Amino acid sequence: THSILPRTTTTTTTMQPFPEDKLTPEHLHFKNFLEPHIDQLIHLQFPKELYQHLYHKITNNVFNAGEVMQLNSKATHAMRPALLPLYAKVDIQAESDVFLIDQLYTTMERALEDQVAKIDKVRDVCLQLMQLDVELEKGDKPRQTEEHSSAASNNKNLDVQFREVRDGTVLIVRGGLDNINSLCIPDENKDQNLKKLVAIEFRDNSLDNLDEIVAFFKEQAHQILAIDLSGNRKEFSAQELLAAFPNAELINGELTEAYSDWAFCYLAGKHSTSEISHLPLNECNIQRWKRDEFAKLVNCVELNVRSSIINKEALEVLRQLPKLRSLFTSWKYQSMFYAENGELPVPQLKKVNRKFTNLPTVPEENHLVAAFVKDNLWKFAETYTLQHLTYDPVWYLMDVVGLSIDNGHRLANFQIAPFYYIEKQEAYTLMWPVRNVQAGERITRDYSYGASDVMRTLFNQIWHPEVPLPDASKTSGATGGEFVNPKKKTAFDVKPEAIVVDPKKKTYRVCCDSKLVRDAVLTPHPKGKSPARPANYTLVGSFSEADILWIVHDHYTNPMEELPRGQYINQYQYEHNLTSKPYFSFNSQEKPWGIQSYFMGSEEHAYKCVKEFKRREAAGEHNIWIVKPSNLTRSAGIVVTDNLACILKWMNTPGDIVASIYLEKPALFKKHKFDLRYIVLLDSIHPEVKVYTYDRFKARIAPEEFALNDLDNFQKHFTVQQYHGGSGSTVACTEFVREWNKEHTDMPFDQLQKKINGAIRDMFVTVQDKLSDDNHAASPHCKALYGVDIMIDNSNGDYQPKILECNFSPDASFFQNMEDRNFFREVFDFLFTGQKADSIVEL
């Protein structure tokens, strides 16, 4: 995560200031460059020794990476095979220089997929990269997820291991082996394992003598069925490897003419074809589809054949796989799987490239191209935030040089970070060595920089979705689940002693930070709406003078450890269990009014989210998700997606995110998506829950008719539009009820209202104990007003209310502006004098 120019900073540079009387023009220019950028550089952990290097290059527009590094046409990029990997031309010392990388394209978050797909030049570049990348994927298979060093030839740090596979063992060697005869196998069962050897994986080493390799293994092993020598010093061709190992079914990841169901088991990491549910043949380049071998895949639900030809023979083979639900193929074959004359070519197949096949019409080619680019874009996208301007992330694509930097995991020799040059308002990517690099060594960076082992496993899904996740037990010990129930104190602490404010008094002193509220409580009720004992309110400027503290814009932040005396306050000490998206997602998880959600700041929850995504994808189930930043409101930073890579990349944005299942079949209002904003008053949480709702709600309607497509269409999928220049509408409560009853005759709104009331009350009952501590919440000092957002899920035809979120200090201007009411006056009269108007309904 890179957050450029934080809004506030407590870090200061340790650089010595220049003596003002000795400043040369060059020093002055450098000082003027450094001052506005110093916080940014410190935040990026950029070496101080390189500050002047950066100044020189960025002010003179120097792009000189080509002088010390080059693309290697004889090597294979581990993560992006469409690109050639980058190698050092000369020795490079750690923190000796910095290099600028240009950005191919930069945009804000909502436009990323849509704009990249529509801009011809950017789309064509992306398509060239992505098409090759997807069709030729050379990334790690499930059995190859260990990190390996990018160091030059070095036999001292080899990772050598045997693994059991069907009918034998596989020998895996990583780390820079340069001579097969010097291979030392530290295995007590070495002789036995070598006798059973059926496969060898020596990818990304430094071997160059095929004769020695053949001689070594012909002496050791009975037969070799799979061999992978890709990424070595010499690129061994499939022809010469097949001549040396004529019985091989797999060579450098591709199927040979001799392939059988053994190759399927090997690639899937299983011992029998009946165990295979997901089969990654994405780099196998199938030329001949063997009906008898594929027929053994009786339980396969997902098949990846992105590098293979799809023809009539392939369709016939796929039709015989009874449980096949999901297929990944090249975009140019995608249209072959849509219905023609009402019949699907592969009837049991639900999705191709994660898109449903039961479309009314076959998509045009340009639509498929755009969809293909958008679908794979997240493998390439990087992000940063300009927090002095906006909290919304900026997404960008590096140029080909930046994309060619391979993944070195924790052993990476370079670090990269985005940099924003304020004077020219231009963004670059900085690249500097963090280890000594030898000439001829591969240039790498850590694609999951700073991530834990568990999160690295999850981020690996961005580039290798075919890799199965480890067992959940392997994530224990560092789950991050401690966020669930801490009694986190807000900055105020009210003593539970007897209240000093007399509820029968007629004048109350109010300290409030909202002009809307201040004006409202000073305004009399409309004629005929006054309570039996009307109260008066006066405004004061300090907490110590007030009887009532109504804090709207933030939680109480006065540095005093406790309120000066027992005033009323519109907050509960542990209300974050309701108002914080992460806590709310946990507390609502098992409730009928809750939505299946995961707090991605917790390793445990992030793991469960990815696991659930992959399960749904494999089963062909509804698999659209909505991702929300936990620290933003009013639809800011929200994205709707069916792309796991998108969800995982959004975890790199500032602030934690919550990922939730998107409602597939919401109840609609005249074919449009809507939500209902209710104002809820909490009078007491303990020992008894006393909760009330205002009798009018705000109905917010999305501008365009709803459909489960165009997921980046803000006008179709979002109801809160006014803060983003949208054209969404707000429908009056009475009008909404009238039209609802016409449209939904099977669920009159008065019945639906009872279900909504029950859901809201149960929400507070659910968190009752979590809002109570040391008698604090039982104190009559605490009152609160919340905004609760409701959608109606009609997936099962039962109109189930779903609570989207509960907001502290909601925008209540809609309610205050009603002509026949003084909303806040009614709220104050009820909460602080006990006089309940007819508009306030107990739940």
Indicate the mean pLDDT: 79
Derived structural class = alpha/beta
Count of alpha and pi helical runs: 24
Q: Percent of residues in helical segments?
A: 25-40%
Largest sheet: 7 strands, antiparallel
- Envelope shape: globular
Strand content: 15-25%
* Distance between the amino and carboxyl termini: 44 Å
Number of strands: 37
Radius of gyration over alpha carbons?
31 Å
Low-pLDDT stretches:
1-18, 132-156, 476-500, 557-562
Provide a concise account of the structure shown.
This protein has 843 residues and is an alpha/beta fold.
Helix and strand topology:
Layout: E1 3-4, H1 25-43, H2 51-59, E2 69-71, E3 86-88, E4 99-101, E5 103-108, H3 112-118, H4 120-135, E6 159-165, E7 168-174, H5 190-195, E8 197-201, H6 210-220, E9 226-228, H7 238-244, E10 250-251, E11 254-255, H8 261-268, E12 278-280, H9 291-294, E13 302-304, H10 312-319, E14 326-328, H11 331-334, E15 351-352, E16 355-356, H12 365-376, E17 382-386, E18 394-398, H13 400-403, E19 406-407, E20 414-421, E21 426-433, E22 444-445, H14 453-463, E23 507-512, H15 515-522, E24 536-539, E25 548-550, E26 568-569, H16 576-579, H17 581-587, E27 597-599, H18 603-619, E28 625-629, E29 639-641, H19 644-650, E30 657-661, E31 672-684, E32 690-694, E33 698-705, H20 714-717, E34 729-731, H21 733-743, H22 749-766, E35 784-793, E36 800-808, H23 813-816, H24 823-833, E37 840-842
Helix pairs in contact: 3-12, 4-12, 14-19, 15-24
